[in-house]
Amino acid sequence: MKIKEYIIYSLFLLAGLFTSCNNDRNSLAPVGTLCLGVDKNEQLLTKGEVVDELLKVCIINADGDTVKSYEDYVKEVRNEKLILPVGTYKVAVASNQTEEPGWEKPFYAGEETVDVKAGEITSATVTCKIANTKVTIGYTDKVKARFTNCEATVSNSSGSLLYTYDEYRSGFFVPEKLTVSLALTNNEGKKYAIKRVFSDIKPRYHYTIMFNMADPSDDKEGGSDFTVEVNDETQVVECEIVIDEDDMEDKKVPVIKLSDSFKDNQFSIKVGEELSPLSLSITSQVGIETLMVKAESDLFKQANGLNEFDLARLDEITKMHLEELGFPLLPDDLDAKNIILSFDQLVAKFLQDIANEKAKKVHSFIVYAMDSLHQETEVAFTFEVRPDVAVVTNKANAFSTFAFLSGETQETSGQAFKFRKQGDSDFKTIEAQVNADGTFSALINSLTPGTDYEYMAVAGADSEGDLLSFQTEGALELPGGRFDEWDGNTPKASVSPFWKSGNNTFTSSLLSPTSEVVDATNDSKRAANLQSTSAAGKFAAGNLFTGDFKLDVMTGEITFGRSFVSRPSKLKGWYKYAPGTINYGGTITTPGGISINVAGTDTCSVYIALVKNRFTIRTDNTNSFFDMSSTWFKENVIAYAALPAEQSVTTNNVYKKFELTLKYFQPEYTGNFYIAIVCSSSKYGDYFKGSTDSNLKLDEFELSYDYDPNCFRNE
Length: 715
Description:
By secondary structure, the protein is mainly beta. The chain folds into 5 domains: 6-130, Immunoglobulin-like, CATH 2.60.40; 133-250; 255-386, Immunoglobulin-like (Sandwich); 391-471, Immunoglobulin-like (Sandwich); 486-712, Jelly Rolls (Sandwich), CATH 2.60.120. Helix content is 6%, strand content 45%. The strands form 12 sheets. Strands 39, 44, 45, 46, 50, 51, 52, 54 and 55 form a 9-stranded antiparallel beta sheet that branches. A hairpin with a 3-residue loop joins strand 34 and strand 35 (463-464). The longest helix has 14 residues, at 344-357.
């Protein structure tokens, strides 16, 4: 397959002053003239394909800031002379479209570094290649004769396309794992379903998938209905999937089953109790090729970070560590169609560990299996291991000024906790609340941040659990939260640049310092001024966030979140909002599928989220936008709070105080996390909707760490 390429070349870079038709006449610095043209390389073009598609052009300086941006090369750049100050630039060119799947919509991208030199003529070339993956689906005449309906859905995280009988177009996808789901209805009305997964997807390759009917004489050995041929020279991947009605019932997705000792995918055992058989069985009609295991266990972390491994492809070092832990390995004479993993030795290791430490531990696992037909399935399960003592003191969940304590016992009365600051001689006692599952818990409040405490669970007349310790988290200040120190138009923190604004150099009014502060008598020197505007024919919302911004070819990438180590209960601050009438409006669709008509008076947005992983949104892909209803955010957001709709309106030209109470969705999570604070003068600015007149001023942001029961209400 010949891949279509665009050649974007600079015709001239003429050094000198005021030599262009550009209207910038006020600069006294040496400048050059950049002329860009689009040509085609006939040897790289597939006959009949589009040449003059809409292309975006960005010119980016050495600091990574976009100094010029054009939405339409043909209308705005071709045959034009562009004045640039002398320096080094990156010229980035790409298709002016989103990266959602589309019919016959290849996404082209490319970039090149250009030096603008005084007194010299310089030329440069940018080669734009296809940045995504091409997928074609076909059905043989045999398939069409046997089935009245045949529809294949090809999907990945960016979206999906439906290929019907008469769909001959090719779809283009982001190059990542693809899932092909085939729905069939035969001439007798019986329905079937086939699902195949392609995990190793490469950009610029053409995947041609043909569905065919099995010949009655074919050997029906497992896996014979799935063949893949890769031609790296032509960059074509040919795949034939054979449909055999008689054999389809035997080629379902692999089945993973836990033994009966697991209850709701959890096994709980106490030291001294008899260990019942524990196993996991995997049944596949065509054989398992990949068997990934993800472990969340302190023992596995200690073993050189065994957080994830493929049992079907183990190196000798990993195999040795797994043997030491008692994790089941696959035998050399493996029957890949029937796999049984026995966890008896693993649980024995867990019991041995708990006997020494005398504290309950939980070990969590996810097993993912993919067969030779690229069908996949997974199961999650946990082991809860408890010591043989009258009272168990569980690990505390300590915030900055308060901590949640829990314990377990067979006693029916006297459940409580004793605690003290480490170094004190006397304990304080707090009564516990007894839970339905036999555990008991208590909240201790008014603790000192960053301080060590000791505690134990007690029950009955004189039964005591182990004496354990915890350290409260520090009550960290929000770096740069007063917005008094600035580096250009960016707030400057005392340690590192904590705050950013999206492409603020190109559209400088998005964020700027202002002396219009909330209270000058409180030694407040500056506030943040967020102004919505428009540039290059597109709307841009004034914005401020904790994170980073960069331009990836032609697309803005905003990565939210800064590493943080303390869990606050509130975000407090002051804001002054003057909304305008929306002049960039219309209907948008959120990643969760909700349609919103953006019209009328603009609204602002302020929210805070604690997340396990930083998250990146791309301005050309609405599916990447923040949406609490999406699976990723449900899994990764630890806590969240946002300015309510009734407060996101005009403040009538005065500063108003806000107080956002974080709702903790995962209060037990104590791993590494990030704090994302996001502010916008136009709520739907990420969709390029809002009013260019909207202005939001922010001042005196701070975090609070005091206990608030609203943080933990199950509503």
